[in-house]
Design a protein that fits this description.
Length: 307
């Protein structure tokens, strides 16, 4: 398994000149929560000692704000800032060396920078700048674009980063063989579709069960209609037997045969500039969440060719 490490450097805390105290306070509160969530996942956050002398807000340094309380942050916000540092591990690595680590493409050691505000430093790749827990999650998903998992461990590798999806390993592994391209060659597009199901379809469906699976597909398709890589979504109308898949819930011991005719359509790809590329037939087949079964996750049955 790769190791993901996150850093807090001087640039992590630098505030734009036009920022307000209120904006700074909100950013601090969110960063404190994000840092705790990252630690819960068992990943390291390192803090560089140079931050203490960093000009954080106007002429005020980190020390001025946290210890001398020279600006009007609330007590909770100042405490949150202190907690961010106290719960981070110290690092003796040189500040510039850490920035060099961010650029290295080592698939076993992945590094990124946690930040309050947008960082303008051309030495740091944009994808290594993390501003929110959502960015942190996407950072892990994007890892698989650079380092696609083999077909045999595809579901096991991706599952932790798509908490609203149940990836059926007994059927997805074989389905990947049917893609019109090797899954490793279109991994960014696959991640795009899985993210759409996890982040858009699933929460919309749970909040709007009355629209059903079809209505949620319509919502998903409209959501991505103007996206640079459009996603189609609909229901298969032809009652195809091969779309019946078995799912097992290890918590309850229940087994269900589900007709997974709902699917996303690969209309476009990040990997191919030509919109007529022949892999348009690729699909992700799934079943909408079922109450009381597999934690109401969306059931993904097949990533492969058109049924």
């Amino acid at each position: 398994m790769p190791r993901f490490d996150f850093y807090l450097l001087n640039v992590s805390f630098q505030t734009p000149p036009d920022s307000t105290i209120e904006e700074l306070g909100e950013k601090i509160e969110h960063l404190a929560i994000d840092c705790d969530n990252i630690r819960v996942q068992g990943e390291n956050i390192f803090c560089h000692p140079e931050i203490y002398d960093t000009r954080m807000f106007g002429s005020y340094t980190f020390i001025d704000i946290v210890y001398d309380r020279k600006i009007a942050l609330t007590r909770d916000q100042i405490n949150a800032l202190q907690v961010i540092i106290d719960r981070s591990k110290p690092t003796e690595l040189d500040n510039d060396f850490i920035i060099e680590l961010l650029v290295l493409e080592n698939p076993e050691e992945i590094n990124a920078l946690l930040c309050l505000f947008k960082v303008l430093d051309n030495r740091i790749p944009i994808e290594c700048l993390i501003y929110s827990f959502r960015d942190w999650l996407q950072f892990h998903r994007d890892y698989f674009v650079k380092c696609p998992p083999p077909r045999a461990s595809f579901c096991e590798a991706l599952a932790p980063w798509f908490s609203n999806l149940f990836l059926n390993s007994s059927t997805i592994h074989s389905g990947l063989r049917g893609l019109h391209s090797n899954h490793e060659d279109i991994m960014r597009s696959i991640i795009h579709h899985l993210s759409a199901l996890n982040d858009v379809y699933h929460p919309f469906f749970l909040a709007n069960r009355h629209v059903g699976g079809d209505g949620a597909c319509d919502y998903l398709e409209n959501y991505f209609r103007s996206h640079e890589v459009r996603i189609g979504a609909s229901r298969e109308k032809n009652n195809i037997p091969e779309l019946v898949f078995q799912f097992n819930d290890p918590q309850t011991g229940d087994t269900l045969n589900c007709y997974c005719d709902l699917h996303t359509k690969f209309y476009q790809y990040y990997e191919y500039a030509d919109p007529t590329y022949h892999a348009k037939g690729n699909r992700i087949y799934f079943h909408q969440p079922i109450e009381g079964f597999l934690g109401e996750k969306l059931l993904v049955a097949r990533i492969g060719k058109h049924a």
